[in-house]
């Protein structure tokens, strides 16, 4: 007993002495990359493979090392560690950030701009939305390695049970449609569901799934990501082009008009619910769903009996010809504290390797990441054995190439997104408000809050 | 009347027990279903009493194909065990010194220790990271373990326990020729085993459930503990499979449930003594 105890004490003291060794400074011979993807996950593995191939093809250059820091939820864990590393002046050379967060880090001077270091024409290889996402005050900071998308899905069995005139309201996968058409269809589905005994409607809860449950449970970005396009399609936004002005934008007449359209989903009898069941669309409880691109893999792999069809995200009006569909995802950025020009050039060279056409294709095949390079979008496979999968990807591919728009670039985006989703979208849905006057009041109140928070960015 | 009271007591006790056990049973059963069946069964009796034909090992085979859960599980077991062993050694010695010896600034040190108990771990994470980083220990097992070996709450618990330890026993040990450390090893520790087990279990559970510090301190995937692996599965962007999550949770919960069953007496005692719920 005594020997064991003494041994433990000595080992404990020895462990504490280990800390007295000199600081392990990061080597200049090494370029370190941090990503939010778990090492075991296909996303982590695809980065590891890409880095491995870089090291193999550049044996004389600095060795590139990748470290995977698991994120929790929207990015905490990873972001906590990143922020701690910033405080400790121990930032990696390259790291990943979610698209909407780039502006905040760039505004704080933590990111290095890329334009002066990239090869000629490299930036032009990205889609417009990805360039827009990575650009802050005219400077390009973030190379998006994956895009995203949102479309409308419908349950084929439920739609087939509808009367012919209602069924005819569904557009083809290659047709545009409007929120008015979407709302008319949704209302008619709801009316039919309440009178029919058709088994396809046996579990019916609501006409459309909107995932506003995410907003109610604190995942605010889902609401902003899904429904800001109503404002974009009405030639307005949740923040001005400078990224810090909300008054006259978020509470403008056009914004209120778009939000009043959104509110129609919750007009009694409600067509959607903020307390919809988990996986409501997946389990046949709603006929329609506003669906993120991740639904395609999920439904194909885990709900083999669900016949899901996909159509484009609706426009606010049919003549609108600007960009309006949700997009964006995580991107690679570089450490802005790097002062050595030669090393910065090398770092950007590695970033190009991680984001070139070949990488974009690899990421799609290994992880299903939507390509961000114009030349790689054609890799999206729309000719598999599964016709539902093919249709969904045909729609998403069209949107990535033609209509995807970056979320607003603002240093205060997290707060902006939270306030928009919580104080406007959620309030409208929970209080079933449909009149413009109340919606205008909600937007005015939100503008006051955001304005106060954004004062620090205006200084 | 007595019989009725007894029946009522059991009905209420069973109802409360069911409320706590049902989610656990649902988790285990859902881990053997595919997502489609999990959500189809929700709200029906099949959620708890599934059809045998709906059960399979698919989620486990898929999960283990993706993630090396057992490696993370072993890492967690190693870290929690090391934290317990070194933590008990250091903290009990500190508690013993504060309870039995006279030395300068003893009261001041004790007040300082008590004051530190109110500082939440989250508030210290950033400075902790900076210190461990300065020491060059980021991404090493010592760097991960060192900050949480010393635990002010455990020092305080040991100090309170040793205060009430009969001094006569130690005195008689000394008369029989034992040194101070000999008394501690041969008399104090064997007589305080309950306290050691209680603190050990609380330390083990805290280490097992920790997520934030391992994410901060470790980057090497081979060193990651189980809570980090779980979060990776929860945060998957492209393949959100509830059945995988349930399978992972089931695998992770089993060691803790076994530990709880074996040591439940001490866990309850520990909760009462430390005021932790």
Mean pLDDT of chain B: 88
Question: How many separate helices of chain B?
Answer: 14
CATH superfamily of the largest domain in chain A: Periplasmic binding protein-like II
Please bin the fraction of helical residues of chain B: over 70%
Q: Which two chains touch over the largest interface?
A: A-B, 60 and 57 residues
Number of domains of chain B: 2
Rg of chain A, alpha carbons:
24 Å
What value does the Rg of chain B take, in angstroms? 23 Å
Query: How are the strands of the largest sheet of chain A arranged?
Result: 2-1-3-11-6
Q: Globular, elongated, flat, extended or rod-shaped: what is the shape of chain B? A: globular
Residue fraction in strands of chain A: 5-15%
Give the SSE string of chain A: HEHEHEHHEEEEHHHEHHHEHEEHHHHH
Q: How many separate domains of chain A?
A: 2
Count every beta strand of chain A, where a strand is a DSSP E run of 2 or more residues. 11
Q: Which CATH class of the largest domain in chain B applies here? A: Mainly Alpha
Number of strands of chain B: 0
Molecular structure report:
- The complex is a heterodimer of chains A (459) and B (277).
- Chain A has 459 residues and is of the alpha/beta class.
- In chain A, 44% of the residues lie in helices and 11% in strands.
- Chain A has two domains: 30-145 and 330-369, D-Maltodextrin-Binding Protein, domain 2 (3-Layer(aba) Sandwich); 150-326 and 406-458, 3-Layer(aba) Sandwich (D-Maltodextrin-Binding Protein, domain 2), CATH 3.40.190.
- The longest helix of chain A is centred in the last third of the chain and has 23 residues, at 436-458.
- Chain A is globular, with a radius of gyration of 24 Å.
- Chain A starts with a helix and ends with a helix.
- By secondary structure, chain B is mainly alpha-helical.
- Chain B has two domains: 2-56, no CATH class; 67-235, MetI-like fold, CATH 1.10.3720.10.
- Chain B has 14 helices and no strands.
- In chain B, helix 3 packs across helix 14, helix 4 crosses helix 11 (193-209) and helix 13 crosses helix 14.
- Classes of the chains: A alpha/beta (459), B mainly alpha (277).
- The interface between A and B is large, with 60 and 57 residues.
